[in-house]
Amino acid sequence: MSKSDDRLNQTGPNTQLVRAGYDPFNYHGFINPPTIHASTVLFPDAQTMEQHGQKYTYATRGTPTTDALCNAINELEGAAGTVLVPSGLAAVTIGLLAYLSPGDHALIVDSVYGNVRHFCDTMLARFGIEIEYYDPTVGAEIKALFRANTKLVHTEAPGSNTFEMQDILAIAEVAHRHDAVITMDNTWATPLYFKPLDFGVDISIQASTKYPAGHADILFGTISANAKHWRKLRQANGALGFCGTPDDAYQVLRGLRTMGVRLERHQANALAVATWLEGHDEVARVLYPALQSFPGHDIWRRDFKGAGGVFSFVLATDRKEDFRLRAHRFLDGLSLFGLGYSWGGFQSLALAVDLSDRRLVQLPEEGPLIRLQIGLEDVRDLIADLERGFAAIATA
Fold this sequence. Notes:
The chain is α/β, with parallel strands linked by helices. It has 13 helices and twelve strands. The protein has helices at residues 5-9, 13-19, 46-50, 64-77, 88-97, 114-126, 168-177, 190-193, 227-240, 246-278, 297-303, 323-332, 379-395; strands at 81-85, 105-109, 130-134, 150-156, 181-185, 203-206, 221-225, 283-287, 310-315, 338-339, 349-352, 369-373. A seven-stranded mixed beta sheet has the order 1-7-6-5-4-2-3, sandwiched between helices. It has a five-stranded mixed beta sheet with strand order 8-9-12-11-10, with helices on one face. Helix 6 (114-126) links the parallel strand 2 (105-109) and strand 3. The longest helix has 33 residues, at 246-278.
């Protein structure tokens, strides 16, 4: 962006998505930036090379393609700076490594993405960093968990698979009172529906694999920092040598342009399916913050502008039946819903959730937990497919 920055901040969300990181006359008027493949960058003379006296010095430090995406994410997040990495998991782990040292204590939400928990329990523990998991609904009472060496609080709202909402404002206020960094995985909502930095979060993280890319064919992550913490994040990322590729950066930037209209469809479809599931005899409960029946609905309604298209539901059983077998019968009865990990793409997906790694969050007792990614298909077709899954249970 150039002189139109202030005007962009006053536009609607879809206009902002179309225009963010947009400066075509830097590229001879072409509407999309070029995909520049590079490692080595040449210097005009020895003095410029010695002093790093030009904008681009080596491709790990950025190219016009990656800068275009960083600029777009900065505008959407309201961030001082953004780094690009090869996956959402890398985004979270670098966010933790940038601000934690041996002897530090970190508070990690118990509903965290499972692979992040594995990283904390293995890599961070090996580095002498003490990890403590906390209840996602703790809110301001998290103050009781702080110690003299608590340096970071990691949040994720809603939580992975069980979708607990967190009072981010309250947690951030406590964290800053103790001079701790607060990080947030905001993949579910994206900065279109929730802007973490506006709620006191220092580091906003997205798995751009999901909604920004949008087509189930890119692995990517972004880490965005406020002004206070940007320099340390940039230094850590430079030391670790992680960088997103120009091809993937181009695809994510292209995906951003349509993310708003896709999210609207994901949300509308998900709410329709979730509401239908609430009334089904084979469903014990639905875990979706946009539903009024959900325990964290009030926080979602207060802080969020919309909902992602991913939620879970509990299959009803008589508690004597094998949970795993019942889940497999249901999943194997589906045809439109693909059985696959990840989400955020155009196709609907389903999987059985394993919550065996949780420490504090109470597990559903009524039956197995099924997570759905609601895609862009027609709602009536998705509901008909879910009925096939329920029928498969009944006929087994």
